[in-house]
């Protein structure tokens, strides 16, 4: 009460008003600080949420890229396996063609050798048969000569004589051949 006497009512009311103003100002400052802290926290939470979403999006993007690269690698491996299979088949076919070509080449060589051997045998046989053909010519000529009576008289024209000499030479050659090749006649 001693303080009441010293201060007038008007002063007390002003002091009360000042106290209430200060208290309300402090309350407003506290409320303002509380509101700004809440606003900061809310803003920080939204920034943090956006940052986490961006990080998750980057991770998903990396994983999507890795999955796409894996798909590309898998398809490349499948294509490579297909191409390798086709190359193996092509190599198998090439080996088959090579084998057939080699076999045909050997058969052709054998056929050429057989043909040459047969041609030589045919030529030898033709030469041997020529002796027999000449025998028929000689017999025909001797018959012709004896029919004309030229052998008996010993007179012949020069053309007939040269033909007869040729035939006799062939007979002599045939006899010489037969003497040299006794296995020719059975």
From TrEMBL:
<dbReference type="InterPro" id="IPR048320">
    <property type="entry name" value="COG3_N"/>
</dbReference>
<dbReference type="Pfam" id="PF04136">
    <property type="entry name" value="COG3_N"/>
</dbReference>
<dbReference type="GO" id="GO:0005801">
    <property type="term" value="C:cis-Golgi network"/>
</dbReference>
<protein>
    <submittedName>
        <fullName>Conserved oligomeric Golgi complex subunit 3 (Component of oligomeric Golgi complex 3)</fullName>
    </submittedName>
</protein>
<feature type="domain" description="Conserved oligomeric Golgi complex subunit 3 N-terminal">
    <location>
        <begin position="68"/>
        <end position="184"/>
    </location>
</feature>
<dbReference type="GO" id="GO:0006891">
    <property type="term" value="P:intra-Golgi vesicle-mediated transport"/>
</dbReference>
<dbReference type="InterPro" id="IPR007265">
    <property type="entry name" value="COG_su3"/>
</dbReference>
<dbReference type="GO" id="GO:0006886">
    <property type="term" value="P:intracellular protein transport"/>
</dbReference>
<dbReference type="GO" id="GO:0016020">
    <property type="term" value="C:membrane"/>
</dbReference>
<dbReference type="GO" id="GO:0017119">
    <property type="term" value="C:Golgi transport complex"/>
</dbReference>
<dbReference type="GO" id="GO:0007030">
    <property type="term" value="P:Golgi organization"/>
</dbReference>
